[in-house]
Amino acid sequence: MRQSKLLLNTLREAPSEAEVISHQLMLRGGFIRQLAAGIYSYLPLGRRVLRKVEQIIREEMDRTSAQEILMPAMQPTELWKESGRYSIYGPELIRLHDRHDREFALGPTHEEVVTALVRNEVSSYRKLPVTLYQIQTKFRDERRPRSGLLRGREFLMKDAYSFDTDWSGLDESYRKMYEAYHQIFNRIGLNFRAVEADAGAIGGEGETHEFMALTEIGEDTIVTCNCCDYIANLEKAESRAPLSSDLIICADRVKEKVHTPNARTIEELTEFLNVEKQNIVKTMIYLVDGNPVAVLVRGDHEVNEVKVKNYFGAENIEIADDHAISSKLGVPVGFIGPVGLQIPLLVDVNVVNMPAIIVGANEQDFHYINIQPHKDFAMEHVGDFRNVSEGDSCPRCEQGNLQFYRGIEIGHVFKLGTKYSEKLGATYLDSSGKEQTMIMGCYGIGVSRILSAVVEQSHDEHGMVWPISIAPFHVHLVPISVKDEVQMNVVEQLYQQLSKHGVEVLVDDREERPGVKFKDSDLIGIPIRIVIGKDAAQGLVEFVERGAGHKTTIEADQVLQLCLERDPIAPRR
């Protein structure tokens, strides 16, 4: 490809709305352009990278015997109502009506559609197991699209769905996908981890894992043990439960109401009473499917909303605002406590064994001290309702402590069980002619966000550094002067020779200063750069490896061999 003919305009400065480095560099490098908030066009370089990611995914999916299909992006909402997810997705589900006023949705995912497809196509155990996948555009009406391709309203996704006759079959399908995902992300060149996770709106009846690319700008917190292989998303992570003890009532501690004017927050209360946060218990009010619930956690801990939601098996959870607290409970915000509160109390296990605590008195400017959990308020709902903290004890081993890392979710695998097949009637006849419900799995990869994840992990102060497996081109040929006939003869010979052997080459044939060419080359991040300059007359060129920063003067006839030694170019010989 000749760079003078390529639709490629680089920018010296990133637009002000680009906050994370991957967004900045892909805009500056001419890989993407924004059409609207969270909606992007892929220019030739970006599309080449995207296609290579897709190809790796296809190769590994096909290796598992999964079969590629393509399903409609526009889905009748009757399917979503049938599955029960119409209200769960809420405003993120982009809805529209046709001229006959029939309602459709732009698919954020395809569990309903694929289940309906298979129920109509498969009726016998002889056709199972089967795994179907597609690579297709998805749509979600994000409240605040941000970070470029990391959180958009339109994005490319690979979604696969397995259908088995029993749970052991699902276990095998899940294992194949779990291993395939490791192979995919290794081939792409990502530093990633598979972590225990929560199923979220997809739901399911078995284990689920997220695949996380490690990076400091990641929206997700990854929790690991410093001694064993325990690893989980913060939403799912647990710590070793505090040692249980018999019911202890401290007779010498008497409940007392104290005046705490304007001490509404934990920080204000600790300063006013001169106590530590761990001596205070926060009473947080949530609306769980519209009903008020109080969650009690230590003052230095944070409520885990996913755990609360899962405890009730609820569809929606949200923190109650001041109006909801006042109208539903009639208590002052900032002074809420469990004593006498007539709603369900979810008590975190770390609160249970506290001998005496400080809580709100449900009265303006007052708190209780010396409150005893077993004595002064109900203990019907006790469980793990908090986010773990860094340094907590590992739930799996005796010696370990928990550490935190940041990550970008790039893939997620689920054991769905019969969540969708039962509601949508996906059944088959077994060997005895009896009708059975199919057992499903679901496996997604955020294809477009992989580009951002790679750039976040692989860049320097000059620009992107693409792994050779997904780079837009393998080699960048950069002549110092396109007017120098000797240099251009060497360029043409190398271009023909490399292309003949399957090496993808971009030739910078622009009439630009060398400094401009080198800056653009560094910015777009092609793995190998061959500089053809004044030594071309002696048959010498400069060989530069973008990631390593190595510059070596070599003979021009060595270029092909050195390039073919780099994976994944080597298999092309």
TrEMBL record:
Domain Aminoacyl-transfer RNA synthetases class-II family profile: residue ranges: 38-467
Pfam families: HGTP_anticodon, tRNA-synt_2b, tRNA_edit
Keyword Transferase in annotation: no
MF (Gene Ontology): aminoacyl-tRNA deacylase activity; ATP binding; catalytic activity, acting on a protein; proline-tRNA ligase activity; transferase activity
UniProt keyword Aminoacyl-tRNA synthetase present: yes
Alphabetized SUPFAM superfamilies for the sequence: Class II aaRS ABD-related, Class II aaRS and biotin synthetases, YbaK/ProRS associated domain
GO process annotations (BP): prolyl-tRNA aminoacylation
EC number(s) reported in the record: 6.1.1.15
Cellular localization per UniProt: Cytoplasm
Record's keyword terms, sorted: Aminoacyl-tRNA synthetase, ATP-binding, Cytoplasm, Ligase, Nucleotide-binding, Protein biosynthesis
Stated name of the protein: Proline--tRNA ligase
Natural source organism: Fontibacillus panacisegetis
Name of the encoding gene: proS
